[in-house]
């Protein structure tokens, strides 16, 4: 999984200008962040990566880097299974 592509897909999902998100970006400080975006994020991960994440797992991700690591980790564990 490529970090740049992950960031671009997130920005596209949330209607953000390319370059808005960085790995150091705080998830809850994303422009327009809301409970609806939280749910969209769960659906995004499922749609794009075929990974089911629990709301608790997303909530524990403070930064976009944490989110990327979570998706990467779950993706890797699915490949092994």
Description:
This protein has 81 residues and is mainly alpha-helical. It has one domain (3-15, 23-80): Orthogonal Bundle (Non-ribosomal Peptide Synthetase Peptidyl Carrier Protein, Chain A). Helices cover 59% and strands 0% of the residues. The protein has 4 helices and no strands. The chain has helices spanning 3-13, 35-49, 55-59, 64-80. The longest helix is centred in the C-terminal third of the chain and has 17 residues, at 64-80. The protein is globular and about 30 Å long. The chain starts with a helix and ends with a helix. 11% of the residues are buried.
> In percent, how helical is the residue content?
55-70%
CATH topology category name: Non-ribosomal Peptide Synthetase Peptidyl Carrier Protein, Chain A
CATH architecture: Orthogonal Bundle
| Helix/strand class | mainly alpha
- Provide the CATH superfamily: ACP-like
Largest sheet: none
Arithmetic mean pLDDT:
92
Which residue ranges are poorly predicted, with pLDDT under 50 across at least 5 consecutive positions?
A: none
Strand-residue proportion: under 5%
What's the assembly state of these chains?
single chain
Helix run count: 4
Would you state the CATH class?
A: Mainly Alpha
Sketch the topology as an H/E string, one letter per element.
HHHH
* Strand tally: 0
Q: N-to-C terminal Cα separation, in Å?
A: 18 Å
What Rg is obtained from the alpha carbons, in whole angstroms?
Answer: 12 Å
- Total tally of structural domains: 1
Shape: globular
